[in-house]
Amino acid sequence: MSQITSYSAEIVLEHVAEGRPLEDDPGWRLLREAVEATAQEYRGRVGATIVDYFGRVRPCDISLITAAFPRGLGVVVDRATGRVAFLYDDYGGYGDVVRRQINRVTQNFLSLAVAHALRAMNYQVDVEEKAAEVGDEKTVVVRGVL
Fold it and tell me: I need a labelling partner for 120 at 20 to 30 A (CA). Which of 37, 50, 89, 112 fits?
C-alpha cells in the first residue's frame, strides 16, 4: 500500500525552534548544501515536492529527486521544534534506496557542520571523501589544522 512515511532525524535547527525564519538558520543552509551535494553524487536534482505511488504531489521544504528514487525524498522542518524529518513513499521496494539516500544526506550534513565549526574556530579545514561508486558507503575525513 502506498503511504507517505516520515523518518525523524536527530537534526534540530535551533534558530527555527526559537521562532526565527527557516532561511535565517545556519543549519538550514548546511542542510540545503547537504541535499545539493547528495543530488550531485546521485546525478539528481533538488526540488520542493515529492510524489506518492499514485502521483499525488506533496510539498516539502526541499526534496531530492534521483533516477534511483524518482518519487523523491522530501525534507521538512517542524517550525515549532526545529526538528528535521524525511518524507517519502517507498512502496514498491524502494526502502533500501531511500535509507541509503537519507544516510547520505545526514552524513553530508554532519561533515559540513563539523567543517563549518572548525572554520569558525580558525582551523584550516580539508575535507576528503572516498567512495567506490554512487550509493556505496563513503568515508569522509575532516582534517583541521590550527
Answer: 37
Report if residue 131 sits inside a domain.
Answer: no
The position carrying cell 517550525 is 79
Placement of cell 561533515 in the chain = 111
Residue pair 44/101 in contact (Cβ under 8 Å)? The answer is no
pTM recorded for the entire structure:
0.84
Nearest C-alpha neighbor of 13 from the set 21, 3, 5: 21
Average pLDDT, the chain: 86
Residue type, 119: R
Q: Does residue 56 fall inside a structural domain? A: yes
| Domain region containing 54 | 5-104
SS3 sequence, 75-116?
EEECCCCCEEEEEECCCCCCHHHHHHHHHHHHHHHHHHHHHH
